[in-house]
């Protein structure tokens, strides 16, 4: 990308040339160039740390580039803030959920939109908001509802709807579907296609490669901060895309384990019930196997895990772990009984982001590292090292803050924290690989498989078909708070998808 | 959603606290043995005027997720400046006081927003510095205001129960309610208080809003101080911490959350009126002075308990435990019926409060 191209491609609406940015001397983005035409849906792919998020921040005015330029409709722009980018017509769905729980749905929709007048016109805005919510499949949500009453997935949909409704020239969506179920994703995709049809350029960042190929026109792959290739999506397959991203295809996991009579039932769940969320869930899980709960958002799959972990105070039922009643409804006693829970929200329910990797790894076992209440620093160090090795974390990063790690490595810290204690009997994971790249995902799956081999009960909930099929020995499909089916082998994507979206009472 | 309106804490808390205190006020003749007079209401409103602008100043910064400790300092400085500059023209005095308050507020807001310093140390430093300044200006003694016409004017009765001072204070609350309720400023202020990072991403000029709200807070505090010194015909260089504490109590009773993002001027108004009325009840019933503090503490305890998530969860846990016992001994018909009806639309049936509890740790996550 030398100086030969001083004028961008004529039909390009958005044109990025030689974009570079480094942090503390480490280059995050080097000489990235690509062009997006009007009405084009352009994907940015790359595994964690490839520089996607930095490119998004540069384009949306959250960071200023060290070198290179951004041209919008033939005009070079220099964004100094989000407001400046917004005035130039750049809307953003940030990687992190960026709606405000303290405001209502409508207020969130209006926030930061430059077209919104200074004096509120509530009735007019509410009618608009109603239509936008209906388009996004959120017909059951009222514009006046406080956002804090919505689930995480619904909040994400509100944020996407907001960005798509701002009449922008360029909409950037950074991992918009990471917290969404497949049905919700379909709503998002049709909304994206609709705005693209009106001539808006769209930049779509995602780890879900099949989604990328289904939705996007063009795919630009980043690797180590550089743009590697820009290819029309119709010329690509998932495997080819993975090769572009990693340079080599990742290893696939081995096939499903059969039931081993040597392992007695370890976790018995009977008639687990959470008012309004989950009804009559029964499962007997034996050690050494991986159980997958397959369900969209609101299916009750993650409520099973949350109830067992003691996070649903209204849950009822009978739960036994190795023959002893589990005191669920109390998170602390559940943890003491040997049940570890990995939440789907590692940022607010998992890790201590501003603290080192080592500290995070030992955070749940401090009492056993202490003598007379004082933590033995040498013992702490040794334990952290052992856990880091076991969970495949680079040793050199033990003293870094978790915040500085990629999503995949953060998740490894979260999972790794629950391992190798000798006092954990069951591992519950809600969306174990959310926001994790392909390579990191395979490693986390390997960790879980190893945990099962060591005699733990592993139960996870997921909305991703690939993950369910790869990892689950037993797959339980759920919808609307009930179990639909239970599979041990002999199941395919179509079958799972049908259970999850149509359920038992479909004609 | 209309039925859900009042159940939101920023409406529920001030409503409950005002209802409790007004009921107490109306019942006070039972203890005092004399009927209520318009004079009692006037006195309560005078108390409201003394506290109101300070409570509004603190409450607004709390909605934006900050805490302005310096308001008492600005309050004192406003009083002294108004007295010094306003001997001949009270308007000039108020103008000087307000200009100084605005300048101090803007400076603090600038430091907090641009340098991203927490507001507590900045405003604490300003508070101490302002106390030093007022001592230097006054020599540590009260400054007398000699224009008695003004003193009589600000406290004269209007329509039996009001005074120009309480009317001005009321107007400030209503003005704030209109601006925050009908323009995008209110939305942005609560957004800044609710989640600063998300507000920046959404395109709110967070820095400008912060500077603005501290300027408003300084202005209101200085105006409050100026009016008070005209009313007392003297300015006190150190009003102590009592006004700050009462203003914070008023803000909390008014449904403003300490974590920011929640609250409204009308709620603040109800909270401030509660504080003022409670003091008046103690005066009417001739209870000993210290009982005022005890009553404030009790009222605050009630208000805090109403919205405590821990209490909600404990109640839920208790109910679930009881349901399980009955199910174990009973036939189970009742519970299975409930399960079937709840299972039809679990997402719609889910109670909003329950979801809120699930995610409340997420909500508090702010940089």
Automatic annotation (TrEMBL), chain A:
Keyword field contains Nucleotide-binding: yes
Gene3D superfamilies reported for this sequence: P-loop containing nucleotide triphosphate hydrolases
InterPro entries in alphabetical order: AAA+_ATPase, ABC_carbohydrate_import_ATPase, ABC_transporter-like_ATP-bd, ABC_transporter-like_CS, P-loop_NTPase
Domain ABC transporter: 14-249, 256-505
PANTHER family found in the cross-reference section: CARBOHYDRATE TRANSPORT ATP-BINDING PROTEIN MG119-RELATED (PTHR43790), GALACTOFURANOSE TRANSPORTER ATP-BINDING PROTEIN YTFR (PTHR43790:SF9)
Pfam families: ABC_tran
SMART domains: AAA
UniProtKB keywords: ATP-binding, Nucleotide-binding, Repeat, Transport
Gene: rbsA_2
Coiled-coil residue spans: none
GO molecular function terms noted in the UniProt entry: ATP binding; ATP hydrolysis activity
Native source organism of the sequence: Acrocarpospora phusangensis
Protein name from the UniProt record: Ribose import ATP-binding protein RbsA
Highest taxon, organism lineage: Bacteria
Entry annotated with the keyword Transport: yes
UniProtKB/TrEMBL annotation, chain B:
GO molecular function, one term: transmembrane transporter activity
Broad class of the protein's primary localization: membrane
Xref: Pfam families: BPD_transp_2
Subcellular location: Cell membrane
Membrane topology recorded in Swiss-Prot or TrEMBL: Multi-pass membrane protein
UniProt keyword terms in alphabetical order: Cell membrane, Membrane, Transmembrane, Transmembrane helix
Biased composition (Basic and acidic residues): 351-367
TM regions (residue ranges): 12-31, 43-60, 67-85, 91-112, 124-145, 165-185, 206-228, 240-259, 266-287, 293-312
Region (Disordered): 329-367
A GO cellular component annotation in the UniProt record: plasma membrane
Keyword Membrane set for record: yes
InterPro entries reported in the protein's UniProt record: ABC_transp_permease
The protein, known as: ABC transporter permease
